[in-house]
Amino acid sequence: MSPRRNRPRAAAKPQDRRGGEYGLEDTESWRGEEWVVRRVTGGAAAKHYRCPGCDQEIPPGVPHVVSWPREGAVDDRRHWHGACWNARDRRGARPPRSRNAPRY
Questions:
Q1: Which of 18, 23, 86, 100 shows the smallest number of beta carbons within 10 Å?
Q2: Under 8 Å CB-to-CB from 21, ≥6 apart: which residues?
Q3: How many domains would you assign to the chain?
Q4: What is the domain range of residue 82?
Q5: Could you please report the per-residue DSSP string of 8-44?
Q6: What is the mean pLDDT of the chain?
Q7: What is the DSSP secondary-structure string of 66-103?
Q8: Bigger pLDDT: 94 or 77?
Q9: In a domain, 103, yes or no
């Protein structure tokens, strides 16, 4: 008899996955638009970014998500915390920034 499996089996993966330079890319729809989503590992994250979901800084070495509209340009890329990207429908569009917060 084999032991009980404690982890749920992986759900079906989307078919549109391509290996990019920094990780796998998925295509997700959000707000009626197709978005390319790339999960960046901590080793590949080398700069500071500002998460649009929580308006907090993403320091170097922290795994995160990069997303941009399928029809968008390179300037449309946004770096999100993984939890913020997953909760993007439950959050407001832009949280208020304090007066002394740095702008990146």
A1: 100
A2: none
A3: 1
A4: 18-86
A5: PPPPPPPS--EE-SSSEEEEEEETTEEEEEEEEPTTT
A6: 78
A7: EEEETT--GGG-EEE-HHHHHTTTTS-SSPPPPTT---
A8: 77
A9: no
